Write the structure tokens for this entry.
Amino acid sequence: MVTRPIPVYLLTGYLGSGKTSLLNRWLQEPVWAQAAVVVNEFGQVGFDQQVISGAVQSAQLLQGACVCCEGLPALSEMLADVFWARLHRQVPRFEQLIIETTGLADPHPVLEALRTDPLLSKRYRLGGVITTLNASVGLDLLTTSRQAQAQVQAAHVVVLTKMDLVADHALSALRQRLCQLNPLATFATSAHANFSAQQLLALLPSTPSAHPPLVNPSPVQGQPHAHSVFIPMHQALQAPRLLAWLALGLAQFGADILRIKGHVQLVDSGYSALQWSLGDSQPELSPASQQPGRSDLPPAGLTFITRAPLSASCQAWLAQWARALDL
Ligand SMILES: [Zn+2]
């Protein structure tokens, strides 16, 4: 039996750039109804996977290690396993595979693995690299974050998200910077995830090649570039108290904290999702997509993704917070 290589779409984008919201939408569309998804997340407790599972026939979670550095061997192994499982009909027959990387991943090592690994290069082919970038903080990020630059450089399509939050003059400076970093990419825009998979596929080249890193070298493989700390929450909290506590920490250690996400038990509104990303004025609380009583509900607690190495004062603040919640 001849099996054609399966297209792999690499979805990348800095922490809080809205890639999970877009992916969640894309998986509901007929063009990607037959897609399998690999979600790579920092931290022991999956959050993004909770958001997309249910929308897709096959979702795999790769946790704890980032696919561009210490998690790369596990990703290669997972792609090989998923290929054999498909061939032996142990999973639904997917026609595309989408890899959602962590927000801090440099896509180039993953592209290199797809190109050079004997099994992966034969069984899969690159469908394209899609990079989301939060337009309201994009210019700052592209100045300060090597990963954000690498993500733009690797992209075939850059989707500028949160367009409703950005002024025209800031946007033209951002566009200029993007064209310098990656003159070959196509740019698209999205506000409230209103950019469809069909629009995306129309913008991707039919036989994309991997863009080489143009300016900056990739992060050193095998060296983690962020930490994640999970703080369990065993008791229900008042929302104002929780938000005040987080606001205090962000005011003091905002430079160390890259993302906060998880589920919390609130006195008034029950089990809720909490998210904060760079550029947000305060954490956002929303009703959890899954309700208590389901056995696969993730435990209540917050994952803090922080810079590595983490400052001692921020470490102490997180430890104090963990002690206070463990009552
Ligand atoms: Zn990495």
Summary: Residues 22 and 108 are 22 Å apart (CA to CA). The radius of gyration is 20 Å.
